């Protein structure tokens, strides 16, 4: 996927975001690719904003965001987010532990 390649090779994510913005029908895979790239860049605020844009976040979206919150060490926010997850998988439970 071109978006994943751009996200890996452009730390600022400018080109990846431009490509993403021009995708007429975004799949959950494209949303999750960009979300993971934003999280990898350690931009928690940007990740939260992007997460809020996802029309129907899936388990991967939720877990990616949970991992981002966990990486910033705010246990209260982690638990609040975890409690709001519509479903939880083994990875999300491991993040909390």
From TrEMBL:
Intervals holding PPR repeats: 58-92
GO molecular function terms listed in the Swiss-Prot or TrEMBL record: RNA binding
InterPro entries per UniProt: PPR_At4g14850-like_plant, PPR_rpt, TPR-like_helical_dom_sf
Pfam family, one: PPR
GO BP term, example: RNA modification
Alphabetical keyword list: Repeat
Keyword Nucleus included in the entry's annotation: no
Listed name of the protein: Pentacotripeptide-repeat region of PRORP domain-containing protein
Originating organism: Selaginella moellendorffii
